[in-house]
Give the backbone structure.
Amino acid sequence: MIVGGLCFIMPAVIITGIIAWLYKLYGTSPEIQPYVYGIKPAIIVVILSAIYPLAKRSLKSLELGIIGILALILCILGYNQLYILFGSGILALAIAALRNKNFTASLLPLALIQAPVISLTSISNTRLFFTFLKIGSILYGSGYVLFAFLDSEFVQKGFLNRQQLIDAIVVGQFTPGPVFSSVTFVGYQINGLQGAILGTIAIFLPAFLFIGLLGNLILKLRESKLFSAFLDAVNIASVSIILSVCYELGKDSITDWRVLTIALASCIVAFSFKKLNSAWIIIGGAALGYILQVLL
């Protein structure tokens, strides 16, 4: 587990760390801004195309669809994603328990919501570590849910701007391995090399512990109808959280006809050529952004 996990993670982390260092030095250079202009709408399309299959698999019933819509509304209204995730699961659990008339077994997942919510009051390395540790402990569903938590924990609290969040998503798409390597980039922007190292350790550590300690147990729990209902609802809620991130990014990014053109072109390419590597969509968006902003 440890060898496999580290070999999967380390290439992405090292490459992301190098990119983060270069970004810190040259990220605000005026020469690259026309390219960044086109990347913003392209990355939103990349996220939407990536979660489309997850959304199809997660939407198993009308009941789950209603839970997903409620979760999306609450996300847009600014409610805490942790409460939305587990609240959706508990709602589905209650419905399944009433349907099966089995209340005792439905109490198990309630323990999951006891995880403390740590508020980031400063940007010390200790706070940074525990904030990423919290995110790594409660993150569920697609890796893209990460960006919703980064938005609420860092962007909305003023430690990171939304452009840096978008660039973190871009780096996560371009580098090999898990999208969680974006945390290395974010940690470096906030607190340099120490922030990158501590953030990376903190975000991946819970996954190692959970898989090592609970891997077989979770597989057995999946056989329970009640626990499956809980997980299905959390899945659909995670899709809603990702959609809310796309909404926030789009609200800030899609501001004129040029950006809208790039978004529509990226959308056509992404959904017409589903096997195309998302990096090409981002490169195409950057090139189109340069053409529309500089040459026209």
About this structure: Confidence is low (pLDDT under 50) at residues 103-122. The CA atoms of residues 54 and 216 lie 23 Å apart. The radius of gyration is 20 Å.
